[in-house]
Amino acid sequence: MSTRIVSFLSAKGGSGKTVTSSALGTLLAALGFKVLLVDTDAATNGMTLLFLEQLLDVRQKSSSTTTKQLGLFEVAPDVAPTMIEVADNLWLAPATFRMTETESVDIGTFSQSLRCLLDATREYDFVLLDAQAGSDGYARAAASAAETDVIVSEYDPVSAQGIERLKVFFANEMPSGSTWTLFNKVLPEFASVIGEGLSVAKFLPPVPWDADVVRAFARRDLAINMALPNPYTLAIAQLAYSLFPDKAGDAIEKWRGGALSSVVSPVEQRLLELKTVEDKLFDIERKRIRITSISAGTIGLLAIGGIAFLTLGFEPKDQDVPISLLANVAALLGVVLSVSFGFKWIGKLFNVNKDQSTLSSIAVEREKLVTTLEAARSTFRVDEKAGIFERRRRSSSQQGPRTES
């Protein structure tokens, strides 16, 4: 398959396009695809700053060599910039390796440098361009160089107007058929509601913005967790699936299936353990009923014998002490003790109240676990059985990079 080149644009700053494009690239790289991130933002060099630690590490290791690292805004028009590996399968073409005034670079020179870079990146599966916010020449060049454009926006009236403004200004660079809108920084509780039915109008699934994302970004990190996916990771996976169903759909479904298994397996194991304990308690309950019945019968016979003894009694004629009275008292005491100790022994042996409490706890825990299973299966589901049109879309030939008009 050919390289997929996607630009991420925004009508205004602060939409989160740098974090979103970087997170998408990180997830695709973790799935085994070779990904290149390109910082085309002359104003802030945001993606370069996000990976500043890795960039400085490369500079330090290569300080003794004669090779000079050059960013996209530092190279000559016919020279590709230096690309650094920031993670397994994930590479970055930084805007600059040194703090320089990148906005002074001529737009024409920048466009040629970007074209030179893209011509040298056909070994990558995905190339993601982080464009400059707004509608200046740098953003226009990034939009024109990509085959798919994604407008990243916050969910508010001002941002909505900015989306339409950008579409008008970049009408030639962003054909409607290959331009998507992504609402970012959406409150988690609204993300699923906003996303319903938006794909028909070329809107991508919204990306929630929660505490995990904020904390990670504060540490110059991304809230991507492939082993135990959080809501943000799942949202970025759904974004990748929506953009690249034919190229990445199978890999995403396989990963989500494995992630689902890692979440579901411990829950299912716990349910089996609860079933074993419950069966054991039920078996004890059955034994308790049988023993109680036998004990009740035995005690009943003793009671009948005692009553009969008390009723009939006997008194030997050659004794001065009324033995019959003592025998009757002893018989009655034996019956009382038999009943008392019998039930006490049964209760102690089977711990009736404790077992009933345990069974109640098991029922409550099982209900919670079943709810967790249903939620996990619903959350991790990604078109497990693709329909006829989805299958046709996947099997269709890849569209090459869009040419400039």
Q: Can you offer a commentary on this structure?
A:
With 405 residues, this protein is an alpha/beta fold. It folds into 2 domains: 4-243, Rossmann fold (3-Layer(aba) Sandwich), CATH 3.40.50.300; 267-380. It has 13 helices and 8 strands. The protein has an 8-stranded mixed β-sheet, sandwiched between helices. Helix 9 packs antiparallel against helix 10 (245-312) and helix 10 crosses helix 13. 30% of the residues are buried. The model is unreliable at 397-405 (pLDDT under 50).
Could you provide a short overview of the structure?
With 405 residues, this protein is α/β, with parallel strands linked by helices. It contains 13 helices and eight strands. It folds into two domains: 4-243, 3-Layer(aba) Sandwich (Rossmann fold), CATH 3.40.50; 267-380.
> What is the tally of beta strands?
8
User: Uncertain spans, ≥5 residues at pLDDT below 50?
Assistant: 397-405
Report the biggest beta sheet as strand number plus sense, adding barrel if it closes: 8 strands, mixed
Named CATH topology of the largest domain = Rossmann fold
End-to-end separation: 24 Å
In the sheet with the most strands, the strands line up as 3-4-2-5-1-6-7-8
The helix/strand class is alpha/beta
Provide a count of the helices: 13
CATH superfamily of the largest domain: P-loop containing nucleotide triphosphate hydrolases
